[in-house]
């Protein structure tokens, strides 16, 4: 045995003797939080170093040629994927959610460092995406592989992956409470003391890591000076409706752009077309360049001219309605630029682009109210912040995360009431219009989505392979009744027999009840075939298509006790209701214990 494995084995034995499972989870939460914080800090520093190098060493910005840079970044990511990683880029958080529901929380160790390469290349060269998603997937992969190293069970591994995700958010935004709420809302954790304390520990340790390396540096420099007034309630409701429509647009345009890019046959074609599209958008709307934190901070400071930067429309910038139009253009095109970056082969996250879009939309609504001519006045900075929360609530279906994130970013709860008004309106309208989010739609279609509904989550966690039984004696249609009795019934403990043709296809089934009244009539043994007695099953389970939700529904609708499983058009086995319910009960106990 290698020496490293020997040391690990000794440590595990010592741990089982002297450290309880609960305390060990607390210790791992600290470690996971520290590692997630280090990942986030590393990701930010690499990206900022690339940005600084490009600003100092290249004169693109002086010549208004900065829009070329994202294409170079996408090309570098393309070359890395093709010649080094040799595996397609997966969307960050959906890949983590899929691993939790269908892979027991197992993530490939390469996902620890691949995002640390591809995300800085994408964002550092100006790709219109965020760093939070890659930080989450890298931290989650670290947590997953650490759990495997220490032989942690599946349920605790899920909790530690959620801790890593919370740690990444806490480190980037320095908002530990929002990070905990995000893990609960997005990862569908039960908010119990057993899960809350590890999440809290991981978030705090990650925030401390961020403070250690980055000091008191914060993403948004803002303090609330305009407090909430009762007369503004209607305006915040209007903002909630606006962010709801913005959220629906964001999600729909995301899937529409991806669908459009799927028409291209090769990744080279997607890179070329996507790179050109991003370059054109950046030329006309410079704030789409990169993550967009500078844009948000300028809006919060009331400096919309700096936020918009140098555009082809500078001659008309003195007109407030031109400013409003340009800001609304950012609201519209940020989602397109972000999705185009993904479709062209870039890596990143959607949370920070959502904040950028929400800030622009909130500022637009405030400017319209202030300049429409009815004598109304609202705080543009407050609407900028609350707009960010409204869009986060709508796009991610995470209202509490949105509220606490902005509350922590502003350093207090002065905007708590307007946040609740706008966020609740945005969430209600968006949830009614779109059941699933960008993160969850594809997973829901695959039957791989974990939710707060315990019944659905247990079915999602179940694996159909574990409930398929193959110990059935197969019959052929040409077999005589006598042969069926001697070779099938006499040798089987089952009362069900699949009838299979020469191509291993299921052509029917026979129940013992179907032949009970003739099985002792020897005159029929040689003149009657299996084909005479067989009939179609009540329903079929298609291995490639049917998840456990559909399987359970088919049993409910058909009233059958056994249903055949068909894989690639051929008979595979049967699923029995009794085994299905036994497996369900076992998984439910594991899920809720």
Automatic annotation (TrEMBL):
Residues 468-529, 534-593 form the CBS domain. Its main location: membrane. It comes from Mangrovimonas spongiae. It is found in: Membrane. Pfam families: CBS, Voltage_CLC. Keywords: CBS domain, Chloride, Chloride channel, Ion channel, Ion transport, Membrane, Transmembrane, Transmembrane helix, Transport. GO terms for cellular component: chloride channel complex. It is a multi-pass membrane protein. The chain crosses the membrane at residues 24-43, 63-81, 112-137, 157-184, 191-214, 234-258, 270-289, 320-337, 349-369, 381-406, 413-430. PROSITE patterns: CBS. The keyword Transmembrane helix applies. This is Chloride channel protein. It comes from the Bacteria. GO terms for molecular function: chloride channel activity. InterPro entries: CBS_dom (IPR000644), CBS_dom_sf (IPR046342), Cl-channel_core (IPR014743), ClC (IPR001807), ClC-type_chloride_channel (IPR050368). The keyword Transport applies.
């Amino acid at each position: 045995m290698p020496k490293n494995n020997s040391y690990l084995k000794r440590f595990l034995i010592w741990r089982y003797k002297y450290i309880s499972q609960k305390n060990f989870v607390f210790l791992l939460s600290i470690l996971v939080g520290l590692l997630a914080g280090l990942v986030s800090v590393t990701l930010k520093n690499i990206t900022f170093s690339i940005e600084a190098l490009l600003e100092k060493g290249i004169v693109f910005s002086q010549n208004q040629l900065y829009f070329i840079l994202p294409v170079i970044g996408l090309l570098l990511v393309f070359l890395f994927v093709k010649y080094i990683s040799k595996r397609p880029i997966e969307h960050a958080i959906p890949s983590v959610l899929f691993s939790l529901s269908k892979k027991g929380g197992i993530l490939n160790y390469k996902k620890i460092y691949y995002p640390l390469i591809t995300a800085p290349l994408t964002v550092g060269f100006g790709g219109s995406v965020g760093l939070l998603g890659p930080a989450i997937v890298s931290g989650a992969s670290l947590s997953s592989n650490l759990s495997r190293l220490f032989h942690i069970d599946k349920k605790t591994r899920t909790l530690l992956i959620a801790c890593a995700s919370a740690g990444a958010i806490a480190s980037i935004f320095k908002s530990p409470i929002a990070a905990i709420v995000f893990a609960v809302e997005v990862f569908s954790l039960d908010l119990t003391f057993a899960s809350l304390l590890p999440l809290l520990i991981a978030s705090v340790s990650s925030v401390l890591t961020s403070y250690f390396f980055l000091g008191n540096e914060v993403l948004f420099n803002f303090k609330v000076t305009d407090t909430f007034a009762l007369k503004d309630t209607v305006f915040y409701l209007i903002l909630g409706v606006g962010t709801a429509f913005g959220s629906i647009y964001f999600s729909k345009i995301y899937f529409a752009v991806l669908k459009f890019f799927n028409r291209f046959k090769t990744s080279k074609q997607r890179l070329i077309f996507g790179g050109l599209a991003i370059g054109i958008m950046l030329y006309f709307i410079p704030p789409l360049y990169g993550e967009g934190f500078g844009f948000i901070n300028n809006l919060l400071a009331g400096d919309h001219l700096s936020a918009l930067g140098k555009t082809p429309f500078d001659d008309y910038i003195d007109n407030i309605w031109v400013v409003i139009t340009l800001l609304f253009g950012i609201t519209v095109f940020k989602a397109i630029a972000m999705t185009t970056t993904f479709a062209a082969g870039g890596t990143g996250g959607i949370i920070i682009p959502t904040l950028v879009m929400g800030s622009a939309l909130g500022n637009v609504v405030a400017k319209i109210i202030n300049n429409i001519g009815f004598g109304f006045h609202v705080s543009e900075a407050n609407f900028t912040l609350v707009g960010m929360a409204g869009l986060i609530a709508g796009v991610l279906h995470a209202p509490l995360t949105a509220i606490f994130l902005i509350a922590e970013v502003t350093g207090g709860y002065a905007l708590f009431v307007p946040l609740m008004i706008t966020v609740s309106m945005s969430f209600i309208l968006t949830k009614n219009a779109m059941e699933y989010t960008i993160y969850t739609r594809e997973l829901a279609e695959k039957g791989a989505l974990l939710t707060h509904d315990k019944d659905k989550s247990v079915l999602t966690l179940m694996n159909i392979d574990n409930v398929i039984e193959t110990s059935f004696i197969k019959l052929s249609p040409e077999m005589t009744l006598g042969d069926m009795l001697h070779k099938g019934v006499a040798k089987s403990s089952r009362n069900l027999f699949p009838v299979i043709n020469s191509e291993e296809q299921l052509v029917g089934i026979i129940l013992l009840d179907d032949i009970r009244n003739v099985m002792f009539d020897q005159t029929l043994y040689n003149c009657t075939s299996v084909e005479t007695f067989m009939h179609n099953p009540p329903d079929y389970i298609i291995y490639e298509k049917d998840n456990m939700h559909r399987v359970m529904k088919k049993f409910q609708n058909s009233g059958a006790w056994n249903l055949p499983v068909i894989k690639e058009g051929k008979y595979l086995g049967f699923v029995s209701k009794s085994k299905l319910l036994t497996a369900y009960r076992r998984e439910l106990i594991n899920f809720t214990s």
